[in-house]
Design goal:
Blueprint: H1 3-25, H2 31-49, H3 51-61, H4 66-113
Helix pairs in contact: 1-2, 2-3, 2-4, 3-4
């Protein structure tokens, strides 16, 4: 891994930390969701500060360029996050639909009672 790439990883991780903290203070982000991003940023810092980790896993998995391994890890973690958010969104959609149906039935009962 080149030094400029390592510096970029560290800068991105530090920016992410401050961005997360700012959004928590503004009550835009729940702490449970922020934990994922703190872990993600910590991983970026670890890979930047200790490139031997990327070299080890790159050799282990047969990936020639360690930068490709870093990108692969980042993409995999983001895909995992999108999947978990999709699951949560599906549950919320289901609850919203049930709530709307329940409210429609209650309103219909009120109209019939008049």
């Amino acid at each position: 891994m080149t030094v400029p790439f390592r510096i970029m990883l560290i800068a991105a991780a530090i920016f992410t930390f401050f961005f997360i903290i700012s959004n928590i203070r503004k009550s835009k982000l729940r702490i449970s969701d922020a934990l994922y991003w703190f872990g993600f940023s910590t991983l970026l810092i670890l890979l930047a500060v200790f490139p031997q980790i990327a070299f080890f896993f790159g050799e282990l998995f047969g990936i020639i360029s360690t930068v490709n391994l870093v990108f692969l890890v980042i993409i995999a973690l983001l895909i995992l996050r999108v999947f978990t958010l999709t699951l949560r969104l599906s549950v919320l959609d289901q609850k919203l639909e049930e709530l709307a149906q329940e409210m429609a039935l209650k309103n219909a009962e009120k109209d019939i009672g008049k």
